[in-house]
Amino acid sequence: MSRRRTQPALTTTSFALLSHLALRPWSAYELAVERVRYFRYFWARAERGIYQELKRLDALGMVTAKKEYRGRRARTVYSITPAGVAALRDWLESPLAPISLEFEALLRVFAAPLGTVDQLKATLEKVRGAVAEMTAFNDAIVQEYLDGSAPFQHEAYVRTLVVDFLTDWMATIERWVDRTVAEVETWKDLSPEGKQERVRARLVAARSRRD
Amino acid sequence: MSRRRTQPALTTTSFALLSHLALRPWSAYELAVERVRYFRYFWARAERGIYQELKRLDALGMVTAKKEYRGRRARTVYSITPAGVAALRDWLESPLAPISLEFEALLRVFAAPLGTVDQLKATLEKVRGAVAEMTAFNDAIVQEYLDGSAPFQHEAYVRTLVVDFLTDWMATIERWVDRTVAEVETWKDLSPEGKQERVRARLVAARSRRD
DNA sequence: ACGCACATGTAAGCAGTTACATGATTTG
DNA sequence: CAAATCATGTAACTGCTTACATGTGCGT
């Protein structure tokens, strides 16, 4: 007799999948690819996990699975059930998960005085590279919507609200890297001497950038 | 005989703790509070987990624990070891974890056409509230640095680089909410009609905001 | 006397990742 | 005929959260 009830509740990841399935049936493979494409920058999950999650949704009656064949290659096509649609609608009213950011480079800036100026610069350059990749990806999406060639173009009126955010978000990181590299370029070492004077200007500038 | 070697490697969370311990000894409680204060917006972890992580760092020889008493109330004070410092320095050169954002509201925007305009507005208002809290917290930190009253003021020259990012990041979310609420206010329902025309303008504006 | 801040821990569980595993079809 | 892409799954593990649990000391 177990003291805990194991409520196999749906997670936000479940709803991410269900919101795709609400538009049309998808194979697990298609979803893995598409989900990576659309959600990688604000709800990233490993491709592999999607197969498990879909089986779980099937077991919970949120989707139905159907094996299809192309030649002798099988694929499992999932469709949303009325229960799945109902769950999705309920989710739209449920409490919102807190915004969560994991940005290891900021942690390294904190610890930077233990290392070298070159290490700090290298960290910043890695961020620059990562953002460049993100931006290239995002720009391609923007272009698709401008061309009218994006999948689900009829959903563009809501989806571009997301693209709008992402464009700004990436630019925010990029600009921070630029400012910070410019500052660190003037440093010969990581001692506080001669560096504390700029603190006030930096904070005031950040504040005024906001207004 | 197990086939896997369980390498109890240090995680980024370990280094977050070690980077505080590199400055001075801390009690577990102090760290729980301080870490929440400083890292909550770019490397959030549950307070409770810090006690476990510190024990693990102790077992790995990265820190030493010492029981102290104030009256009969005990507290465990942790100090970093030379091995801990060495590990921290190595980390500064190791590969950087990818930037990871979890922003459920964007997922709900994707799924918005299944629900109502009011639900979408409510979601955006929740984000606005969350950002207001973040901003208030951040503003207090900024003020401390300006007053010179922040803990570890001598580290301000690096720490304010982080504060600089955070200020911009929060403003980015806020401005997106403002833009998006303004758009959604003009909507009577969630059909695509009459809404697709603004897509191009939105994408072009986002692009030009960046340059 | 009560409530808040100080102070610490454990056990169970879970969401998600990673490594391992297999095979079919298309394209160059 | 090799490589890329299509296509799917499982077992083990792990980092972290949550619920549960237990006190002390101080201020009002």
The main sheet of chain A comes to:
3 strands, antiparallel
C-alpha end-to-end distance of chain A: 59 Å
Provide the β-strand percentage band of chain A: 5-15%
Oligomer: homodimer
- What structural category do the secondary elements of chain A indicate? mainly alpha
Q: Which residues of chain A sit in consecutive blocks of at least 5 with pLDDT less than 50?
A: 1-7
Number of domains of chain A: 2
Q: Helix and strand string of chain A, N-terminal first?
A: HEHHEEHEHHHH
Gyration radius from CA atoms of chain A, angstroms: 23 Å
Approximately how much helix is present in the residues of chain A? 55-70%
Number of helices of chain A: 8
Mean pLDDT of chain A: 92
The side-by-side strand order for the widest beta sheet of chain A comes to 1-3-2
User: Quick one: how many beta strands of chain A?
Assistant: 4
Descriptive report:
The structure is a homodimer of 211-residue chains. The first copy, chain A, is mostly helical and 211 residues long. Chain A has two domains: 12-92, Orthogonal Bundle (Arc Repressor Mutant, subunit A), CATH 1.10.10.10; 104-210, no CATH class. In chain A, 61% of the residues lie in helices and 10% in strands. A three-stranded antiparallel beta sheet of chain A has the order 1-3-2. In chain A, strand 2 (63-70) and strand 3 (73-80) form a beta hairpin. The N and C termini of chain A lie far apart (59 Å). Residues 1-7 of chain A have low confidence and may be disordered. Chains A and B meet through helix 1, helix 4, strand 4, helix 5 and helix 6 of A and helix 1, helix 4, strand 4, helix 5 and helix 6 of B. Strand 4 of chain A pairs antiparallel with strand 4 of chain B, so a sheet runs across the interface. The structure holds a DNA duplex (28 and 28 nucleotides).
